[in-house]
Design goal:
The complex is a heterodimer of chains A (335) and B (686). Helices cover 74% and strands 0% of the residues of chain A. Chain A has 13 helices and no strands. The chains are: A mainly alpha (335), B alpha+beta (686). Chains A and B meet through helix 2, helix 3, helix 5, helix 6 and helix 7 of A and helix 1, helix 4, helix 7 and helix 17 of B.
Chain lengths: 335, 686
């Protein structure tokens, strides 16, 4: 009961407050930029060859303002937004009018979620296991080789690294496709040919993310393990004749994992922001380009829809980690 | 430790060598020689069909001997295999890029509402307009219309004859009822793009018979029909039999798309990367089929790529037949691709007859750019050879006036204006004058290009066509006099100060895409003005449209004038954007040109042009020249060179693309007349 009163309830209030403030900020910030969806729509139409008769432009601007729900003051729009949100309605995309935001997110989300969930988990697991071992056995030859490889890979700009993979494996060796989430003409279906096709197209984007992500996790974990390894309690265990496997798994890795677990939770939360550069390099579908285009076109509703997901995901991930931390770290107690 | 470093370095070197070795291809060679060339020509003949004279277009092939430049991109000899698509042989299919990128609303084909990525195949394959502009031939192509519009004497009524024998791709005949329905629907529903234009202009629309449409206009408008003229978009005709069953055409997705073009929708990617179009079994019931015969490709795929590198890799692996690239991308594709070619077989390789004019635009509502002397001074501070060399490596066609130097425009306008341009004089103050025009500017550009090692013809006609008829002198001394005349001064470091003594800083706003010509013009201008002693900076921004429309800028890399039609001599489309009625104060979206420049004299030109029958060529040209002179005098934006298109064609599967040696059609796959190109493409047999 003390836990609920003294920790859980205040923490939940904080959780909802952060979400509320985050959404409020995302509502107002795009509206304070010079990007106005009506002028962007007009600019897009005229830039793309549509001739909008200047004499009829005022009426067209009025029509668009009304259709986009941008009439009234900013606070009236804010009130209407919350009413809509409570009904589960994100509204329609301005730039892809009249497609509902939920439909656009629904199409892109599975691609982003499946790619980033897998790659985040793999890069975290591989990086931490190998990094942990390399940290503990840091004087071994293989550990130094791995460290050097990670040192070379990690500073590489992601765009360059990903594009080099594309050139090597899609053009030079031609094992993988140059672009896209599926082959041209492939219809979405839950069958083996479709899944195989998706896996084939996802391999290079995933590889690029896993290799760089694992290198980051490797270096961080290696450093933490080296520090933990030098702690008195580890030295004491060694002197006390505790088996090395036990020291590695129970004494060193478990302690070193604590900050890494927090990092993993945050990484999962950030999945909903998409992987913009990955999507651009591999022409891969997902939320990253959807959000980027929404920002540059002033598509308020779409920005709101995606960032709302992201805010909720990150704050929820942090909340869950906070609540579960005592299970991972016995030193933490909410009493 | 040393061993591991050595191992890692060796690994890196080996990988780099593999990449380099595999990517290496022969250096492109440029050779001029006499070779026989088979040329496909389009011949228009009049034949009698069902007792009525019909204009029929026929294709003939001739072998002519002409001088061409051979690059290292000959017709393919190496057999390679690209992946089949849809389980069908790749060689029955053309794959082309979507210029406007990944489709944001893939399941929505309703192009009457908002922006719908029309170049994914709607405008260029599956739909036919009443008329199309083909800038390569300079002609208006009759699509669904069977001839020119017929106006009454005071331009308050207009009739359109429609083509017989056309059917929608679901088999329903196309008739005047479709056109009448479209216009009435546009008037009725506010969310449709053309609603306000139609509501403002059309009093009534009727169909006297199945193949004639008659409009009664609310006020005289001699250019009303141009709303149906496809120049990268127009008012399209709705299939009545589909839309009449729809309650709300604004939210209707129009999926599957039904059109009158030679291709119909096959399938599309829910993520917007590709759309597949299939040749209609009844292709002969499309205007394309009636005019030019059977399209050759069975399928056409329009595909988007999120980055240029992927486009180039796709072309090099024969997975992309036609695509627009950047200047650097085209060079890479031509250098690496064994079967690639540009629009021109030799230097400058690019499409240089696109009807758009690039340059710089001044915000004439913001000091000191509200002063024509300042605008002229900034022009004279530009060395156009250096400028164009930096921007496009000398590949653009110069234009001294506010229309591009291409098609019939040089003959109709720029040549007749040569004397006036030569006589045009600037007042420098203190009784001093200066004639800024320079007929030799193209020759200076030729010399630059030769110095760069490119091979160019010395034929004056070729030079004029490729590099233009003239531009302005590089005269920084004169620019200085103009500025001093207007109270500007220099500080001890030679930096320019405004008349109020403050430091002069010019912000040149451009798009952020470095390959875009707006960016390249802005970057070149900044270099020139810095050299002149002004603190100029480039401000790349994705908000350029909003900022220029609301007047929040000094100078922009945006087009200095509205693009003309690209066919016929009528400049109403360009000049009307300088109409004072469209100018809005700073902070409000302007309806005309973003320079916000206008003048009573230009208003008078626009009014007279509006009252002139566009078919009255002599009168249209005479008034147009008056308008161009006013624009040169005021210089609200600096015209530099015509739009340069970097088209790359892979000829591994398909050939007979409309290159510069045989420009039977406009060359882009994203423009409407791409469909008219399809009957002339030839499979290579690969």
């Amino acid at each position: 009961m003390t836990f609920v009163k003294r920790y859980l309830i205040p923490r939940l209030i904080q959780y909802f407050l952060v979400i509320f403030l985050g959404i409020t900020a995302v509502f107002f910030i795009p509206r304070l930029t010079p990007s106005d969806p009506v002028s962007r729509t007009i600019a897009q139409l005229t830039a793309m060859g549509s001739f909008l008769d200047p004499a009829s432009m005022d009426a067209f601007i009025e029509d668009l303002t009304e259709m986009y729900g941008l009439g009234g003051s900013m606070f009236q729009q804010y009130g209407a937004f919350w009413l809509r949100l409570f009904r589960g309605d994100f509204g329609v995309s301005f730039f892809q009018f009249p497609t509902p935001v939920s439909k656009l997110i629904g199409t892109a989300l599975p691609w982003t979620a499946s790619l980033l969930l897998v790659t985040t988990f793999l890069s975290w697991t591989i990086g931490n296991i190998v990094g942990g071992l390399a940290g503990y056995f840091s004087r071994r030859h293989w550990s130094r080789v791995l460290d050097t490889v990670a040192m070379i890979i990690r500073p590489l700009p992601y765009y360059i690294f990903a594009f080099a993979l594309l050139v090597l494996l899609a053009y030079v060796i031609r094992w993988f496709p140059v672009s896209g989430g599926t082959d041209i003409g492939r219809k979405v279906a839950f069958n083996w040919p479709f899944i195989k096709d998706v896996l084939r197209h996802s391999f290079l984007p995933a590889l690029s993310l896993v290799v760089l992500g694992a290198a980051v996790n490797f270096q961080t974990m290696k450093l933490i393990v080296q520090n933990v390894n030098a702690e008195n309690f580890v030295q004491y265990a060694k002197l006390g004749g505790v088996k090395e496997e036990r020291i590695v798994s129970r004494y060193v890795i478990r302690n070193a994992l604590l900050p890494q677990v927090t990092g993993l939770a945050l990484s999962f939360g950030q999945i909903f922001s998409g992987a913009l550069i990955t999507e651009i390099v591999f022409s891969y579908p997902g939320l990253g380009t959807l959000l980027y285009n929404a920002i540059i076109t002033g598509d308020y509703n779409l920005i709101m829809g995606i960032t709302l997901l992201s805010i909720v995901a990150i704050t929820t991930a942090i909340l869950i980690i906070d609540l579960l931390y005592p299970l991972v770290d016995p030193r933490v107690r909410y009493i | 430790m040393r061993k591991s470093i050595l191992f890692s370095v060796s690994l890196l070197v080996v990988v780099s060598l593999i990449i380099t070795a595999c990517g290496a291809t022969p250096t492109p060679q440029v050779v001029e020689k006499q070779v026989p060339v088979e040329v496909t020509k389009v011949v228009v003949e009049t034949q009698v069909v069902q007792g009525a004279p019909v204009e029929v277009t026929r294709v003939v092939k001739e072998e002519v001997t002409k001088e061409i430049v051979v690059t290292a991109t000959p017709v393919p000899v190496v057999k390679e295999k690209a992946p089949d698509v849809l389980g069908l042989p790749r060689n029955e299919m053309v794959i082309a890029g979507i210029l406007t990128g990944r489709v944001g609303a893939p399941s929505n084909f309703n192009e009457w509402v908002g922006w719908k990525w029309r170049d994914r195949g709607m405008q260029n394959l599956a739909n036919e307009p009443l008329w199309s502009v083909d800038f390569a031939t300079g002609k208006i192509v009759n699509g669904l219309a069977d001839g020119d519009p017929k106006y009454n004497a005071d331009f308050t009524e207009m009739a359109i004859p429609l083509r017989k024998g056309v059917a929608w791709d679901d088999g329903t005949p196309f008739t005047s009822a479709d056109v009448v329905f479209t216009v009435e629907e546009l008037i009725k529903f506010e969310g449709l793009n053309a609603h306000n234009f139609m509501a403002d202009n059309v009093a009534s629309v009727s169909a006297p018979d199945d193949y004639t449409v008659k409009f009664v206009l609310k006020q005289a408008n001699s250019r009303f029909h141009t709303t149906f003229l496809d120049r990268w978009g127009c008012t399209w005709i709705m299939p009545k039999h589909i839309f009449e069953k729809v309650e709300d055409p604004v939210t209707f997705e129009f999926n599957p798309f039904v059109g009158t073009g030679p291709y119909k929708l096959h399938s599309f990617d829910p993520n917007g990367y590709w759309t597949i179009w299939e040749k209609r079994a009844d292709w002969d019931k499309s205007p394309t089929g009636i005019l030019y015969g059977e399209p050759k490709p069975k399928y056409i795929v329009l595909q988007a790529f999120a980055n240029e590198g992927a486009k180039i890799l796709a072309q090099l692996t024969h997975q992309l037949d036609a695509v627009d690239l950047s200047a650097e991308g085209l060079k890479a594709a031509l250098a690496q691709g064994k079967t690639n070619r540009g629009y021109q077989p030799g230097y400058p390789w690019v499409v240089n007859n696109d009807p758009a004019l690039t340059g710089l635009t001044f915000n004439t509502f913001r000091a000191p750019y509200d002063n024509p002397d300042v605008r002229w001074a900034l022009l004279l501070a530009i060395d156009i050879v250096e400028y164009e060399g930096q921007a496009v490596d000398g590949a653009g066609t110069l234009s001294p006036v506010h229309i591009p130097s291409l098609g019939s425009y040089p003959k109709d306008y720029i040549e007749p204006m040569q004397q006036w341009l030569s006589d045009f004089t600037l007042d420098l103050g203190n009784g001093e004058t200066f004639k800024p025009y320079d007929k030799e500017a193209p020759q200076r550009l030729v010399q630059y290009v030769k110095d760069r090692g490119y091979s160019v013809s010395d034929d004056p006609a070729v030079v004029a066509q490729t590099f233009g008829l003239g531009w302005y002198k590089y005269a920084p001394d004169v620019a200085e006099k103009l500025l001093l005349k207007n109270g500007f001064s220099k500080d001890k470091d030679g930096k320019w100060l405004l008349p109020d003594g403050k430091f002069w800083k010019i912000e040149v706003i451009t798009r952020s895409d470095m390959s875009h010509l707006e960016f390249k013009n802005g970057a070149a201008a900044v270099q020139q003005w810095k050299k002149f002693g002004i603190d100029a900076v480039q401000v790349p921004s994705d908000e350029i449209s909003a900022l220029t429309q609301t007047g929040d800028y000094d100078v922009s890399g945006a087009w200095p004038a509205q693009e003309p039609w690209g066919a016929g001599p009528d400049l109403y489309r360009s000049l009307d954007f300088y109409n004072s009625a469209y100018v809005e104060p700073i902070g409000t979206i302007t309806k005309g040109h973003t320079s916000r420049w206008s003048s009573p004299e230009m208003d008078d030109v626009i009014k007279r042009l509006r009252e002139t029958d566009p078919a009255n060529t002599d009168q249209v040209i005479a008034i147009g020249i008056e308008g161009l002179k006013l624009a040169v005098e005021a210089m609200p934006g600096i015209p530099t060179f015509g739009y340069v298109g970097f088209v790359s064609w892979d000829q591994y599967y398909w050939t007979s693309w409309p290159g510069s040696e045989n420009p039977y059609n406009e060359p882009y796959t994203h423009w409407g007349p791409f469909k008219y190109m399809t009957p002339f493409l030839e499979p290579t047999g690969n």
